[in-house]
Structures are given as structure tokens and as C-alpha cells.
Amino acid sequence: MAKYTISLSRKAEKYIDKLPDNIAEPIIKTLVSLSDNPRPHGYIKLRGRGGYRVRAGDYRIIYEIFDTVLVVDVIDIGHRKEIYR
């Protein structure tokens, strides 16, 4: 299976940069794993907005998959209490 390229939005980049390392590490590991499998166990297709979400601890990663060009576009990252607002 071909590897996907991970593309982070500016908003997602800034969010990760602000997090302490112990919280950011599992999120980054999840992002890297999306390049191998953009539809991992536990991913969910979102209703009401485009894209998918995957859990990374108490944080959620919202992303879109473009299979024709092998790109995973990360739209947003946030804590589970804030991400869906």
C-alpha cells in the first residue's frame, strides 16, 4: 500500500506547537500512522461537516482523505471538549 502525504493546516500546526511535549507526542504518532493507513480502527466519518475524525487520547484529529493524490489533509486538532464547537 502506498504512503499518504500528511498536510497540516496552519491552525493545526499552531495548536500542536502550543501543546506540551508529553501531550503532543501521541498526537504526532497518530498523525504519522495516518500516512500508512488513513482509515485506522476507530476512525469515524463526520456528519454535518466533511471529513473524518480519529482519537489521540483526549484529543481529536479532524481530517479529509484524498485517495486520488494520496493526501491526508488535517483540518483541525483539539481537545474533545472543544473540537466540535
Q: Which class of secondary structure composition applies to the elements?
A: alpha+beta
Strand and helix order: EHHEEEE
Portion in helices: 25-40%
- What integer is the average pLDDT? 94
Uncertain regions spanning at least 5 consecutive residues: none
Q: In what order do the strands lie side by side in the largest sheet?
A: 1-5-4-3-2
- Give the C-alpha Rg: 12 Å
Instruction: Give the overall form.
Output: globular
Biggest sheet overview: 5 strands, mixed
> Given the structure, what is the number of helices?
2
Number of strands: 5
Beta fraction? 25-35%
The N- to C-terminal Cα distance equals 35 Å
What does this structure look like?
The structure is a single chain. With 85 residues, the chain is α+β, with helices and mostly antiparallel strands. It has a five-stranded mixed beta sheet. It is globular, with a radius of gyration of 12 Å. The N and C termini lie far apart (35 Å).
Quick rundown:
This protein has 85 residues and is an alpha+beta fold.
Task: Give the helix/strand layout.
Elements: E1 5-8, H1 10-18, H2 21-36, E2 44-45, E3 52-56, E4 59-66, E5 71-79
Parallel strand pairs: 1-5
Antiparallel strand pairs: 2-3, 3-4, 4-5
Index terms:
single chain, 85 residues, alpha+beta, 5-stranded mixed β-sheet, 2 helices
